[in-house]
Specification:
Elements: H1 9-15, E1 23-24, E2 27-28, E3 35-36, E4 50-51, H2 55-70, H3 79-95, H4 97-108, H5 112-131, E5 141-142, E6 148-156, E7 159-163, H6 169-182, E8 186-190, H7 197-208, E9 217-219, H8 224-232, E10 238-242, H9 245-256, E11 263-266, E12 272-275, H10 282-294, E13 306-310, H11 314-326, H12 346-361, E14 365-368, E15 387-390, H13 397-400, E16 407-413, H14 416-424, E17 428-429, E18 431-435, H15 439-448, E19 453-456, E20 471-472, E21 475-476, E22 489-497
Parallel strand pairs: 7-8, 7-10, 8-9, 10-11, 12-13, 12-18, 13-16, 15-16, 18-19
Antiparallel strand pairs: 1-2, 3-4, 5-6, 6-22, 11-21, 14-15, 17-20
């Protein structure tokens, strides 16, 4: 069992007294005239003043990254120097684990245990993983005509704009930063305006420890205006975006209307989880299905938000899930006995509650939850009880649209074909899961599911060595493994005439 260090709340309180700005060239940007103050999702209190990066500051930051790239301040280092520095980032994250976990919980609302145990270790480990790829990505020789030699080279693409969401602010940023740096690129990161703390703190740590040359790692702050200025910038050579599908379309438009920079998109999901009648130990299946769905207060793109269950085991399975939902304690995310923290911000909470009402009006039956949690000291926070709605058909809104919160839509099926049809009846295709002890059925169904990753008999398996990414409107390209390196490199074909 992991020992959890105490949160650094006193340190964080003092740190939040400063003016939060972006970073360019290892130095904080001058506070602009436009500021915004995210609220603590647990009680609605103001956290700290952030200063939005103006279009001029975005330009300054991108040009700092471009200068560092063209001057070879980073890619000009030896491979072993780059490996060592990338590993230094991993070590620094580990040493500041409690600080970063505290800032993550303050801004996002997930429990401190989730930040400390789930997010922070992987945020560090991914740098060690990609440090190992610095000297292992090879070019090829091609079987061309006699008298010629053709070979390919993998080169960094240049300045990478990395736009990350608010649900895993540090972890998903590190998923992008690590492979981009490993391949010799420079980066400009734009965190979500609600959850900028950990990215600004990481920039400070990298500067204070003198890990990276100036301009290699940069941060801009703000919302849509900042994001548009960054993604349209002509000196940006690559965009990697994680977030909602509608925003992803704006990112594509920005690329198309500027310099046609390549784009990687990790977008929305509405992932199915099929429970066949031969699933096995239903208690264990229910436990894992519940955790995969409701951990991190349901704010996960790949969570199994559609439960598709055989009619013969529906009622007993609902009893198990409802019992687990009723036992969840919503409250102070820093409290050791809290199971679920608040949703990240108020408008998002209201959106989730509105979907619950829509589900009820369209004929869904509430099995658990269905309300805001205002018990105890929660009245000012953005808490939503874990909610399970059954009798959901494929025509209903909550079956088709991403809610991104603790709301599970449950549908019944009779036949295998019906289960597959229900699972694939979605514009999304990020992930899918199924439980069956019949391996022939499991593999047969897995081959028919229209999703970028399929989990058999354990929903939610993730490893840096396995690609992560979806089909259809869930995105373009892959995160993780060797597959992500394609998006942070470009292939150059070199021809040599061999004299006879």
């Amino acid at each position: 069992m992991t020992t959890i260090a105490p949160p650094c709340r006193d340190w964080a309180k003092k740190w939040l007294e400063k003016k939060i700005t972006g970073f360019a060239g290892n130095e904080p940007l001058v506070p602009s005239g436009t500021s915004y103050t995210p609220l603590n999702p647990a009680d609605g209190s103001p956290l700290a003043a952030h200063f939005e990066s103006t279009p001029t500051q975005v330009d300054q930051t991108v040009l700092a990254a471009q200068k560092a790239f063209h001057d070879k301040a980073w890619r000009g280092l030896t491979r072993y120097e780059r490996i060592e520095k990338i590993r230094q980032i991993a070590s620094a994250i580990r040493e500041h684990r409690a600080e970063l976990a505290t800032l993550e919980t303050l801004s996002n609302g997930k429990t401190y245990a989730e930040s400390y145990i789930d997010d922070l270790p992987e945020s560090a480990d991914v740098f060690d993983y990609y440090a190992g790829w610095v000297d292992k990505l090879y070019g090829e020789t091609s079987p061309v005509a006699e008298g010629f030699l053709n070979f390919t080279k993998r080169e960094p693409v240049g300045v990478c704009a990395l736009v990350v969401p608010w649900n895993f602010p540090l972890l998903l940023a590190c998923w992008k930063i690590a492979p981009a740096l490993a391949m010799g690129n420079t980066v400009v990161v734009k965190p979500a305006p609600q959850t900028s703390f950990t990215m600004v703190r990481l920039a400070e740590i990298i500067r204070d420890r003198k890990i990276l040359p100036a301009g290699v790692f940069n941060v801009v702050l703000g919302g849509a205006t900042t994001g548009d200025a960054l993604t349209r910038h002509s000196a940006v050579n690559k965009i990697s975006f994680t977030g909602g599908t509608s925003t992803g379309r704006h990112v594509l438009k920005a690329s198309a209307e500027s310099n046609l920079k390549p784009v990687t998109l990790e977008l929305g999901g509405k992932s199915p989880n099929i429970i066949f009648q031969d699933a096995g130990d239903l208690e264990a299946v229910a436990d894992r299905s519940f955790t995969a769905m409701f951990s991190h207060k349901g704010e996960k793109c790949s969570e199994p938000t559609r439960l598709i269950i055989h009619e013969s085991i529906h009622d007993q399975f609902m009893e198990k899930l409802a019992k687990k939902a009723a036992a969840i304690k919503c409250g102070d995310p820093f409290s050791a006995d809290t199971n679920q923290g608040p949703q990240c911000f108020e408008d998002h909470m209201k959106k989730i509650l509105s979907y619950i009402e829509i589900g009820k009006k369209e004929g869904g039956r509430i099995v658990a939850g269905g309300t805001r949690d205002t018990s105890g000291t929660n009245s000012k926070g953005y808490f939503v009880r874990p909610t399970i709605i059954t009798d959901v058909t494929s025509k209903m809104t909550i079956f088709q649209e991403e809610i991104f919160g603790p709301v599970l839509a449950v549908s019944k099926f009779k036949t295998e074909a019906e289960a597959v049809q229900l699972a694939n009846d979605s514009k999304y295709g990020l992930a899918a899961g199924l439980y069956s002890k019949d391996i022939d059925r499991a593999l047969r169904v897995a081959g028919q599911l229209d999703a970028g990753q399929v989990f058999i008999n354990r929903y939610g398996c993730y490893d840096f060595a396995a690609p992560f990414g979806g089909f259809k409107e869930s995105g373009w390209g892959k995160e993780m493994a060797i597959h992500s390196l394609d998006s942070y490199t470009r292939v150059k074909s070199v021809w040599v005439k061999i004299e006879s």
